[in-house]
Amino acid sequence: MKVTIIRRITAAAPALAIAMTMLAITSHPANAANGKVLFGQRLCITCHGPEGKAPIQSTYPKLAGQNKDYLVQQITDIQSGARNNGLTQAMKPLIKDVTAEEIDAIAEYLAAIE
Questions:
Q1: Is pTM, for the whole model, over 0.90?
Q2: Is 29-112 a domain of CATH 1.10.760.10?
Q3: 49 phi and psi, to 5 degrees?
């Protein structure tokens, strides 16, 4: 009986590890490793391109390598309405539900790109 339980636990370990990793990514996005995932999940890649290096329009900013604090401030200002110039209205619906932790993680990820 004990051997059977141990075998079942051992067999389930890889799936459990994957599930726990996915839970950590979606539940605690406040680190740079998750910023890359969030950049895709939050559809930032749609307009700003892969890694924030190749926007789809010349009027959209390149985000890769920008200062983290600057990125956080700009996203937060667009989200709150404090910044409403240029093409910010296109971004507003996409970022309305992005949390402060997610903004921080995305900004940290983008700031680290060369």
A1: no
A2: yes
A3: 80, 170
